[in-house]
Amino acid sequence: MRSALGFATLGLGATASASAIIPHILPRTSHECCFTLTAHGPKMSKGPTGILGQLSDGQNRVGGKHPPATYCLDDGKIVDKNHRGCILTPPTTQFQCDEGATPTPGFDAHGDGSLVYKNNPEFWACPVNDFGEWNVYTSPAPGQKKCVQIKLTASGTCRPSSAASSVPSKPSILVGPSTPGEFEFPHLIVPVDEAKPGAQFGNKLNGTVTPSMCTAFNFDIHPDHAGKTCSLLFLLPKQGQLETSAFDLKGQGDLVFWSLKEPVGSKTSFKSLPERRLVGVAPAVPGTKTLVATRECPAGQKIGMLMCGSGIELNYFQDFNPAPIGLYIRQC
Questions:
Q1: Which CATH architecture does the domain made up of 164-331 adopt?
Q2: Which strand ranges, in their side-by-side order, compose the sheet holding 326-331?
Q3: Domains of the chain: which residue ranges?
Q4: pLDDT tens for residues 55-80?
Q5: Reported pTM
Q6: 172, 177, 242, 321: which sits with the fewest CB atoms below 10 Å from its CB?
Q7: Do the beta carbons of residue 27 and residue 325 sit within 8 Å?
């Protein structure tokens, strides 16, 4: 059997202190994420579909072969790569980025990658000319009769900050020498690369995250776990505790975990990843055992999980020998 977002709705079951954790995703507190934006509009000739570009003065455009724009979101406010504040100009609500402007608050990224303003994913594109160039608004521009509704999706490190995504706000650091219970080792480990969305890397032995790479895992949950509780754990011992494994960690940041609607295969690429939903965030700190999330065991099912990073590069050999390292599901 295949699960639908097997760890999508979770509650923490550990009593250990989480004081060492600073959540990066829920809620977002002065941690920026950077991305490009892609417009998705109705199918029409020269329609408003494609990556948002930018004019030299900071106007954001769909179409017209303008250089792709990069944006960063921090505490609901957006700036572009030139550190110009992105605003909704009154009274038209045109989305543009101006030198010296204070960014308009209220933006966020939802779990499906969509950019929202005040929790509304609806944006509008209005034509600038007859050559397929469109400006972006949060409401149809006054006097414009050819405006069409669009959706904007963020491609980069942004993840949702809304508590409505049913994600535990604080994972727990587990204390003590052991974490009792039966462990489920991943039976498939597949890296994917957002920078090479169609690339297929196949089944690997290592978990890898970089600014563009994530790793997908399949777990087979034993039928005997029916009615029991399962936990998603990430174990990162200190280098000196490892006997048959090793890891390389660069930067200081978090690991971000997603539940996949379906398991992955050896030919899965970033482009073909199933629908995903954020389930938790763990600090990438050597010497920690982190309880990311807990729920009823999806007994008898094969489930898929995705691990990405924020502010770090991590590569490790998944291994259950002392000391265990990597992502596991444990029957409590």
A1: Sandwich (2.60)
A2: 172-173, 288-296, 229-236, 326-331, 182-184
A3: 33-156, 164-331
A4: 989 999 999 888 888 888 888 999 98
A5: 0.55
A6: 177
A7: no
